[in-house]
Every structure is written in structure tokens, then in C-alpha cells.
Write a structure and sequence with these properties.
The complex is a heterodimer of chains A (about 375) and B (about 400).
Chain A (H helix, E strand, L loop, with lengths): L1 H8 L1 H13 L1 H6 L11 H8 L2 H4 L16 H4 L3 H4 L3 E2 L2 E4 L5 E17 L2 E8 L5 E7 L3 E8 L5 E2 L1 E2 L15 E2 L4 E7 L4 E6 L5 H6 L3 E7 L9 H7 L4 H4 L2 E10 L9 E4 L5 H4 L2 E4 L4 E7 L6 E6 L4 E5 L8 E4 L1 E5 L3 E6 L7 E6 L3 H5 L3 E7 L4
Parallel strand pairs in A: 1-5, 3-6, 5-12, 13-16, 15-23
Antiparallel strand pairs in A: 2-3, 3-4, 6-10, 7-9, 8-11, 11-12, 13-14, 16-21, 17-20, 17-22, 18-19, 18-21, 22-23
Chain B lengths: L1 H11 L6 H29 L13 E11 L2 E10 L5 E6 L3 E2 L2 E3 L9 E6 L9 E7 L4 E6 L10 H23 L2 H6 L2 H31 L7 H20 L7 H29 L6 H19 L9 H12 L1 H10 L4 H30 L9 H21 L2
Antiparallel strand pairs in B: 1-2, 2-6, 3-4, 3-7, 5-6, 7-8
Helix pairs in contact in B: 3-7, 3-8, 3-9, 3-10, 5-6, 5-8, 5-11, 5-12, 6-11, 7-8, 7-9, 7-10, 7-11, 8-9, 8-12
The chains are: A alpha+beta (about 375), B alpha+beta (about 400).
Chain lengths: ~375, ~400
């Protein structure tokens, strides 16, 4: 008899049950008042019953949100600060007068909170996921001192131009636990890039958290015909200061290691920018360095509400590769630069999220809080 | 060696006077092992040498969904914790979307304790929903609601129709079966053995069916309850208890035997009612005429079984009515209870008692049959009896097909 119930509990069972019910209207009639209450609106009831967490922000997405907030202090990194946290390393001069930029990176095992109350045993660069956003200028000599303080062998594989010896794959640039490797190459080409661990198995080394953005700003001197655009991209110039720049690494976490992600996010913490919207001064244009490292899913995407942007695939050009779009998709390791402005908009909350609704509902959902002037 | 040491003590114990003081000493001896146990536990807790076994593996987490209630406020699930330590519920996802929830009581759930999760989710009538609970370690526990329908509440308005359904699948078929009584009285003694064998056959089917259901519910209970062991032990205990009670005044015959049969069948029908009621909860509001008729047909044989031992007696009409109620009415209570959302361990317990009770009547009807046939050696294994057994099991098996669509 339990078999009978199990059969009936399938969707198909319900339908055939319905047919049976229609055939035997007398008994169906006995039961007819039962499903009536389902037509009520549970949603309307619930919003007040629940959700102090949801109510914490007027524009939070009703009840479709993770409860609570992540302890950023305990994590050691705050996704809100990560947006503009550029790691520029230390600068010195080579004998020929060329700039040598040195970064120090350490691989560390660390448990991080990826959605309130859920902890993930991550492998990190410098104790944070994503790792530090390395930012250099086109043509510089880069030296990355990579120490492995973790329990597994790791590498740093840069998406850039370098020699085979510097590729950061097993056999060419790995650092064993307790070991060190120094990567050296020239900063080419300019654009929005990334680095990640290329040790094996690759999938695990990536999804455990070993990745970060790697931005090479164009050198205006090398692009005389588009010097103004290049200058606006070059960190620290007066033109660049007119922009609001953010780095966003689209990532995800598979907490039960079954090859499917439980948490999707920008900069690791699911729903962080729903609970802490990103403030934008209306008059200043916005530039986003967007990188996708999501494992297990073929693509990820970025959709901006109520606005359109220009897109520079890989950031390796100074003219947009896509003009006036509001959605862009990236496969893993694909990246690009988004430029847009809210100049003509009302102030208010403007959403952005992955336009795979599944990813959005699993944490990759965020808000811009467009204000007159940022505090 | 035991013999030799015991011997001198037994013989050496003087009669009356030292008995009182030795009783106090006896009690003291009971305290010794208890004290040893306390000391061992204290040492284990304080010395912490078990930490040598700590491999750094995350704690084992177990979460069992015991009840699911869908109503105008959303989805409510009752979860019971198991595993090696308390469980912290970090997030709840419904259909792969993070959703707010309220836990009652709040905080970590200790092993074997339970908590309600109230999720204000706008579920959709007739559709499938997955409720996923994420613990601190990100281990997901999933409850699938195959067909979402509002969970019936204990409302007076619904008790009536449900009772009518219970009467139709429980009492009506038993009464119809009992109407064979005059016919049974007209058949001869040899045919009587056939009818008793038929009764045993149907009881054997019911025993297997009930035990299977009990074990199935047991499989859904929290691991700490050791469902299968619980079901088997409870069934054995119920059997022994009823067997002992039944034999207080010798082997039960006539009305007494019929009463025990009715009790066993009643407990089985209670389980059947639970399942029908649970069917409402789980998503079948449309119970077809065909199914109800199937149950009715399936249960008619039960009525024949109940009156079979009464052929030599001549019970009053109220006695017949009482037997019909005892065997059939539990179906009504089963449907009432089953349609409310209930925890699986209670259903497993009720069905385990039913299995034990049915086993008891199998033994007693068997004994009765052997006594009747006792005059002739081996007569109870006559072709008539074997045919009765086969027919009893066969009819139940075939009619059961009607209710397993």
C-alpha cells in the first residue's frame, strides 16, 4: 500500500489520480473542500512573519535571500572593500630605468564563510577569495614571489604573455608546501585578466578558491591615437579619478563536493551586495573589471537593470567590442570591462545579477545604490 | 567451577536471622558496578585521550525530515538532528533559491532533538518543491515535496467526509464479510477447516503487508531510533503480550478468538487508514471510486476471517457489531491521524504492534484448526486446508493489486 502512495505522489500519479477522481465524482466530492486553501497567497502572509534579515534593507528582495550576515572581520576580507582594493605591489627600477613591480603572494588554507553560517574549507591566495587584485601597467617587468604556506602544491598561472618556464603549471613553476617560486614576465597585453592555480586536479584547485583578477592598465604613451582613453584606464591619473572602478570576480562554491554549486556570488559572499548595496555617485561613470571563474557551470553572466553598458572583451582594446548591451556572458576565465553611467537616471536602487535565474537565486544578486554623491 | 563455589555458600546460609542484613549487603553490591561505570565515564571525560583518534574530519551530520506542513504561511518542516554533535542550520533553500526562515526553537539542534523551520515560500499547488537545508559545513539535506497541496488541518468540517471514507474502506467490507456467517454455519465440519485455513492465509498476507509497511516507515525515521530494530522488537513484544493475555484462561476459542482476530485486523486497518490519510497530505486529493472499491473488496475477506471461529458458538448481534467496529473503525482513526502530518516513528510503532497482533491470531487460529482436526493424525494438512491457505493468500494478493495502481 505504501507503494501505491509512492506511485501516486509522482506528478504523473497526481494527474492519473485526477482522472480517477473525475470518474468517481462521488468520492471526489467528499474531498473537494480540501485543496481550496492552497489558492491563498502564502507570499502575502509571509513577508511580515519572517525576515528581519530581509527587512534590513528597504530594497532587499522580499524573502528570497540568505538570512543573517557574514562576519567579514572573521573572514579577514570584506567584499565591499574588495571592490576597490587594488594590489599594486612594490615598485623599483631596473638598471635600464624600466619599472620592476614586485608582488608577494602566499598560498594558505583557510576556512571562509561564503554565505551566512556556511563555512567552506578554502585554498586561498593571501587568505582571501578571490585573491588580491594585482594591478600593473603595460610594459612593466613583473616579479611575483609566490610562497606556499598551505598543505598542497600550488601554482600561479597568469593569463598573459610569458615564457613556458613561467607558465605556472605542474613541472613549470609549482611551489610545493613550504616552497617558493618566483614568476617573472613583462606586463602584456593590457587588459582585464586573471590568475589561478593550475595544479592538478585543476577543477578542485580552482573551485577551492585559488584565483584572482590581474589587471594591466594601458600605457598612454604606447597608444598615442587613443591616449585619453588609455589615461582614463591608468590607475592614479586625474582622468582615471573621474571614474568609479570596481573589480568583480564571479565565483561559486560547491559545499558538498558533488560537482554542483550551492553558492554563487560576486567576490565570494552570496547576497553580500544585496545586504550592502554598492554606492555610486550619479555623475561619475562606472567601470567594472568583470572576471568569471565559476567552476562546474559552462557560463556565467552579468545583467544590469535599467541601463546599458559598453563592453570590452578581455579589456584588450580601447574601443568597445560590444556597444550598448545590458547583458553579457562569459565562459570560465573569460573576462572584460564594462563601462556605463547613471548620469541621466533617478537616484535609487539598481539591481544587477547573473541572468541565469538559478545563479541569482543562489546568491549572485546585487544592488547599486545610486546617490547624488558618495559618502 | 561455578558449581563447586556455589555449593558451600548455599549450604552455609543459615535460615532466617542473617537474611535481613545480607539484603542490605546485596544492595551494596549493586552499587559497586554502578560506581565503576561512573568512574570509567569520569576518566573518559576528564583525560581526553580520545583526542588521539581525532583525524580532523568534519563532524558527522544527520538531519531527518519528520513532518512537512504546507499552508497559507508557506512551508513548515520539522527536522530531527542526528550524528556526532549539535547541528547548526545556516541557510534554507527552496527550489535552489536562498529563502528566509525562522527556526523554532532557535540555535543549534542537539542530537535527537528536533526543531521546526518556518519558510515563507509561495509554493504552487500541484507542483514539486525541494526544500534544502544547509548546515554550517555546507552539507545539504533535501526534502522533496512531490506534489504540493495544503496540509489538511484538524478541522471538524473534514472529519465527517474522512470518517465516511474510513467506514467505507474499514467497516463496510468487514460487515459484508461477516454476512457469510449463516452460510458458514451451513457448511460441514470439513469445509469449516477450509474456512479456517482461508482465514490463516489472509492473516499471513496481512502480517507480511503490515510488517513491510512498518519497516518502510522505520526507514524514514531518524537513525538514532534504530527503526528496523524497534519495529521487530515491538512486534515481538506485542505478540508475546497478546499471546500471554489470550492464554490466561486456556487457548482462546469462539468469541474470544474472534475478538483477537478483529483486534489484529483492526490494527492493520489503522495502518491502511494512515496510508490513505497520508495520501491526502502527500498530494492526492482525488481518490477514485475504483481505488475505494478496491480497498472494500480487499477487506471483505477480513470479515469472513473474523466470524470463522464463531461457527460453533452463537454470539449475539451486539457481539457481531462490536467485532465489526473493532476491526473496521480503526481505519477511520487512521485516516484522521494520517491526513494530519505525523512523524514516521509513530506510524512505525502502531504498525509494529499490528504485526505482532496479527502474528498472535495466526498462531491461535492455527492452534484451533489443529485441535479441530486433531482427531485424525495429519488431517490439518489435508488438501482442503492447503487449498484454503492458498486461496486466502491468493485472494488477498490479487485484490491488493487493485489498490496498487
Amino acid at each position: 500500500m505504501r507503494d501505491w502512495i509512492r506511485q501516486k505522489m509522482s506528478r504523473r500519479g497526481l494527474l492519473s489520480g485526477g482522472v480517477l477522481a473525475a470518474a468517481g465524482a462521488s468520492f471526489a466530492a467528499l474531498l473537494k473542500n480540501q485543496p481550496a486553501r492552497a489558492q491563498g497567497d502564502p507570499y502575502a502572509h509571509s513577508t511580515h512573519a519572517m525576515g528581519n534579515a530581509a527587512a534590513s534593507h528597504p530594497h532587499a528582495h522580499g524573502n528570497m535571500i540568505a538570512v543573517g550576515d557574514v562576519d567579514s572581520a572573521h573572514n579577514g576580507f570584506d567584499p565591499s572593500k574588495m571592490l576597490t582594493d587594488w594590489e599594486t605591489g612594490t615598485v623599483s627600477r631596473l638598471p635600464g630605468g624600466r619599472v620592476l613591480r614586485t608582488f608577494e603572494i602566499a598560498a594558505q588554507d583557510k576556512e571562509i564563510e561564503i554565505v551566512p553560517g556556511v563555512f567552506f574549507p578554502a585554498w586561498t591566495y593571501n587568505g582571501r577569495v578571490p585573491g588580491p587584485t594585482l594591478r600593473a601597467t603595460e610594459g612593466e617587468r613583473l616579479r611575483i614571489v609566490f610562497r606556499n604556506e598551505s598543505s598542497h602544491p600550488h601554482t600561479m598561472h597568469f593569463h598573459g604573455i610569458h615564457s613556458a618556464r613561467m607558465d605556472g603549471v605542474p613541472g613549470a613553476g609549482e611551489a610545493l608546501p613550504g616552497g617558493e617560486f618566483v614568476y617573472e614576465f613583462d606586463a602584456f597585453p593590457f587588459g582585464c585578466h586573471l590568475y589561478h592555480c593550475h595544479f592538478l586536479p585543476l577543477k578542485r584547485h580552482i573551485h577551492k578558491g585559488m584565483y584572482g583578477a590581474f589587471i594591466i592598465d594601458p600605457d598612454p604613451a604606447r597608444h598615442p591615437e587613443q591616449a585619453a582613453v588609455a589615461r582614463s584606464r591608468l590607475l592614479g591619473t586625474p582622468e582615471n579619478k573621474q571614474w568609479q572602478e570596481f573589480v568583480m570576480v564571479m565565483n561559486a562554491f560547491d559545499t558538498d563536493m558533488d560537482g554542483e554549486n550551492e553558492v554563487y556570488a560576486v567576490n565570494t559572499v552570496g547576497h553580500h551586495y544585496m545586504k550592502h548595496p554598492i554606492q555610486i555617485a550619479r555623475g561619475k561613470p562606472v567601470r567594472i573589471y568583470l572576471v568569471n571563474v565559476t567552476e562546474f557551470d559552462p557560463i556565467n553572466s552579468f545583467h544590469l537593470h535599467a541601463n546599458f553598458f559598453d563592453y570590452y572583451d578581455h579589456g584588450t582594446t580601447l574601443t568597445p567590442t560590444l556597444k550598448t548591451v545590458d547583458t553579457v556572458m562569459q565562459c570560465q576565465a573569460q573576462r572584460g570591462i564594462l563601462e556605463f553611467t547613471f548620469k541621466e537616471h533617478e537616484i535609487g536602487m539598481y539591481m544587477f545579477h547573473a541572468h541565469q535565474s538559478e545563479f541569482a537565486e543562489l546568491g549572485w544578486m546585487a544592488m547599486f545604490d545610486v546617490v547624488e554623491a558618495t559618502s | 567451577m561455578n558449581e563447586s563455589t556455589r555449593q558451600p555458600i548455599d549450604t552455609g546460609t543459615p535460615a532466617a536471622a542473617p537474611r535481613a542484613s545480607s539484603r542490605a549487603t546485596d544492595l551494596l553490591w549493586f552499587a559497586v558496578p554502578l560506581l565503576a561505570l561512573v568512574l570509567a565515564a569520569a576518566w573518559l571525560v576528564t583525560s581526553d585521550w580520545l583526542s588521539a583518534f581525532n583525524t580532523g574530519a568534519p563532524p558527522v551530520e544527520k538531519l531527518t525530515f519528520e513532518r512537512t506542513v504546507l499552508d497559507g504561511d508557506g512551508i513548515h518542516v520539522k527536522v530531527r538532528a542526528g550524528g556526532s554533535g549539535p547541528i547548526a542550520i545556516a541557510q534554507v533553500l527552496v527550489d535552489d533559491a536562498y529563502w528566509t526562515f525562522r527556526q523554532e526553537p532557535a540555535g543549534e539542534i542537539d542530537p535527537l532533538s528536533s526543531a521546526w523551520l518556518h519558510i515563507p515560500y509561495p509554493w504552487v499547488l500541484g507542483e514539486k518543491h525541494d526544500v534544502k537545508v544547509l548546515t554550517r559545513t555546507g552539507v545539504p539535506f533535501v526534502k522533496t515535496i512531490d506534489v504540493a497541496v495544503p496540509t489538511p488541518q484538524a478541522q471538524i468540517g473534514q472529519l465527517g467526509p474522512q470518517a465516511l471514507l474510513g467506514i467505507f474502506v474499514g467497516i463496510v467490507p468487514v460487515v459484508i464479510g461477516m454476512l457469510f456467517y449463516p452460510a458458514l454455519r451451513h457448511v460441514g465440519s470439513s469445509s469449516m477447516n477450509f474456512v479456517l485455513a482461508l482465514t490463516i492465509g489472509l492473516l499471513v498476507f496481512l502480517f507480511i503487508d503490515t510488517l513491510e509497511e512498518a519497516l518502510e516507515f522505520a526507514g524514514q525515521t531518524a537513525e538514532s531510533f534504530q527503526g528496523t530494530t524497534m519495529v521487530l522488537l515491538v512486534a515481538a513484544a506485542a505478540f508475546l503480550l497478546l499471546f500471554a493475555v489470550g492464554r490466561r484462561h486456556g487457548t482462546p476459542t469462539g468469541l474470544a478468538l474472534a475478538t483477537y482476530i478483529a483486534l489484529g485486523i483492526g490494527l492493520h486497518n489503522f495502518g491502511e487508514g494512515l496510508a490513505i490519510g497520508a495520501a491526502f497530505t502527500a498530494g492526492i486529493a482525488g481518490l477514485g471510486t475504483f481505488l475505494v472499491l478496491g480497498f472494500t473488496l480487499h477487506n471483505v475477506t477480513e470479515g469472513i476471517g473474523i466470524v470463522a471461529p464463531l461457527v460453533d458458538a452463537r454470539p449475539s448481534y451486539p457481539a457481531f457489531a462490536g467485532l465489526a467496529l473493532l476491526a473496521g473503525a480503526p481505519a477511520i482513526f487512521g485516516i484522521w491521524l494520517g491526513s494530519l502530518s505525523y512523524a514516521p516513528h509513530w506510524a512505525a510503532l502502531a504498525l509494529a504492534i499490528g504485526a505482532g497482533a496479527i502474528l498472535q491470531v495466526i498462531v491461535e487460529v492455527g492452534a484451533y484448526l489443529m485441535r479441530r482436526a486433531g482427531a485424525r493424525e495429519g488431517a490439518w494438512l489435508s488438501p482442503g486446508v492447503l487449498a484454503g491457505l492458498g486461496l486466502g493468500i491468493g485472494v488477498m494478493y490479487v485484490t491488493a493489486m487493485l489498490v496498487k495502481v
